[in-house]
Amino acid sequence: MMISFRPREEVDQVSSYNTILLHSTNQLFEYKAYFIDLDMKPLKKMEYYYELDQKIVRCYSRLETAVHGFPDSQE
After folding, report:
1. pTM, whole model, 2 decimals?
2. What GO cellular component is one of the record's annotations (predicted)?
């Protein structure tokens, strides 16, 4: 499942996205949810997919640290 979010500036704007309000910061976001790649995968590939997901998370975490200075909790 893939979920995409983007900030929404104008409340009256028509969009094909659904909206959600984050009360703690009073921010409005548009979102869409998708199911992708639903084909059956061989069980022997699950370890590869898991390791690939971990690499993606580490890369994203390092990028966030470099751009925003957030601590890297993956290492």
Report:
1. 0.40
2. nucleus
Phi, psi dihedral angles at 59 (to 5 degrees) = -65, -45
Task: Let me know whether 30 and 7 are in one domain.
Answer: yes
Is 58 within a domain? yes
Q: What is the pLDDT of residues 5-62, one digit of tens each?
A: 888 876 666 666 788 888 888 888 889 988 888 888 788 888 898 999 999 999 998 9
Owning domain of residue 47: 39-69
What's the domain count of the chain? Answer: 2
